[in-house]
Amino acid sequence: MAGEPQDDCLFCKIVAGQIPATVVRQTETTVAFRDINPQAPTHVLIIPRVHYPDIATLGAAEPGIAADLLRVSGEVAGEEKLESYRVVFNTGSGAGQTVFHAHAHLIGGRGLEWPPG
What are the residue boundaries of the HIT domain, all occurrences included (predicted)? Predict the structure, then answer.
């Protein structure tokens, strides 16, 4: 069922505390933790506590929680003292999504080129 934890989802297991993560911030609706394969000096993933496969389905079903991901991204960027940063949502395997639980990548701490990748 949409929004319900999935037994085979890595991020659902992090939310449940079954898999350890370096958590930097938690709210009622989100968990933010350091990426284990950082692409910049600061690389934090911000995930909803509810399970949706990508940001499009999360945004359609629960727009308030999708907005929470953006709000928390900005709060974490401030806590990390980032003057410039990027927030990225990969949607689908062709865009580089490898964990199919909606999540934002907060990336900063170095110059970021445009266009990316």
Answer: 10-117
